[in-house]
Amino acid sequence: MRFGILGTGRITRRLVADLQSTAGVQVTAIASRDVDRADWYAQQYGIATGVEGYQALLGRDDVDAVYIALPPSMHCQWAVAAAEHGKHVLCEKPLAISAEEAHRVDAVCQEKQVRWLDATGWLHHPRTANFSGLEQRGKLGTLKHLSSAVSFYEPFQSGDHRLDASLGGGCVLDLGWYAVGLPIWFAGRPLSVYATAVMRHGVPYRMTAMMWFPDDVTATINCGYDVTTRKWFEVAGDSGSIVCDDFTRPWPEREARFWSHDRTGAAESHSFEGNQEQAMLLRFTKPESDLAIYQQQTLDTQQTLEAITQSLQNGQRCDVVFRERETPAFSSVSLVPAKPTVWFLSGDLMFGSRIRAAAEAAGLEFRMSSGLPTGTVGSEASDEPKDAENQTSAENRSLDPVWMILDLSTRGGMLPTLDADSRNRFPHATWLAYGPHVQVSKLKAAREAGIELVLTRSQFDMRLPTLFK
To answer: Gfo/Idh/MocA-like oxidoreductase N-terminal domain spans which residues (predicted)?
Structure first.
């Protein structure tokens, strides 16, 4: 995949090196509003061409994808423009400055059938897959509370956009992307948030927030520019906890690590190798890699940060109202598993790892997505054109979900669409919906919608180990 770079900011230098050292990736052009600056960066980093103006780069035939390294206020504009030119989009976080803009990027990329991802590297490190996995979840017991803190002491350059509110500046959309994204990764979508901030230069300089999730799970987060470097989290259940002191990026010259603790305080250290940016780029550039889970993480983080901003403005606890994606976005391979499949409709990646383990133990495939799979049993299923880049032998395998599991906490809004015709597309599937016992109305609505098996979260949790056998 041939990349063009939009922007020559601080983050560009590191990402260009990661791009150039990733197998199958080339950096063919870099654009700036100043042609001399573009030419200087091109010569400095061994890039073939410096380009004057971002629009000119989008029109080039030697660019397949763009990396957007511009201020947040420009992300939506140029992500949409890139998609309309048929370019895949890798965007520096945040994806946009509002949830509405983020959903616009998502919708246009889906319409133009290009891939998109925000460049949050920690999600792709091998360490993340491990601490999100079944083994660690078992050590936690039932999830109860999460804490995260991300700060860097005045990391500014001259004219830094992070101190300009009109450019999307402030710690909320910057460091808050990590601090808020962490509990969403583990616990799914929050119900409500409350936040306070220290304001300087007209932007949030340090922010502290409380987050409330289903099943009485809570989280506290802190981020800021006036505190020493921190990038840690703790995830605590009723049986144990996980602690990581560098989750956003491993400390220099140290291997990536985290610790698990049991109730007695006994600790176990876990260490990992790997380059998270290269892992992210490999996932982004392989057409068979399904990005839907990461895209949903992005959209949920953006929506939660918008609610936090609202709380800062009105001084009140604010509900987080999530908007569902307009259409599902999956690669052709992700939609055509070779075996009978457990399909999990949710944004809860942590619990998804438990369902995956139970499914695989029963010899079943596992898929997790934000919406219903396309296609029907015995037919090819694809949302992308069958061009040479996307051709795989998997296209000839048929889609056959045997379990369709709906998480009412994160995907309860789908219930009105799950009529008999929708469910009958998958005649071999048993439909199951689950949610917190306190969400009585959603559990009732699932039963009224004709879902065969409706359970509380605790009931589902107890039945899961043997459910698919």
So the answer is: 1-115
Q: Looking at the domain assignment, is residue 65 inside a domain? A: yes
Given phi > 0 = left and psi -120 to 50 = alpha, else beta, which region is 159?
Answer: left
Cβ atoms of residues 290 and 352 within 8 Å? no
**For residue 410, pLDDT beyond 80:** no
Range of the domain at 250: 123-282
Alpha-carbon gap, residue 468 to 423, rounded angstroms: 19
Length of the chain: 469
Point out the domain boundary residue: 265, 282, 299. Answer: 282
Cα 187 to chain centroid distance, Å, stands at 13
Closest CA to 432 of 360, 369, 342: 342
Identify the DSSP state of 25. Answer: -
Q: Phi then psi for 407, rounded to 5 degrees? A: -85, 110
Overall number of domains in the chain: 3
Half-sphere exposure of 262 (CA within 13 A, CB side): 6
CA separation for the pair 257, 245 (Å, rounded): 8
User: Measuring CA to CA, how many Å separate 121 from each of 15, 26, 64, 92, 382?
Assistant: 11, 19, 21, 10, 28
Q: Which element (helix H / strand E) includes 32?
A: strand 26-32
pLDDT of 203-251, one tens digit each? Answer: 999 999 999 998 899 999 999 999 999 999 999 999 999 999 999 999 9
CATH code (residue 47): 3.40.50.720
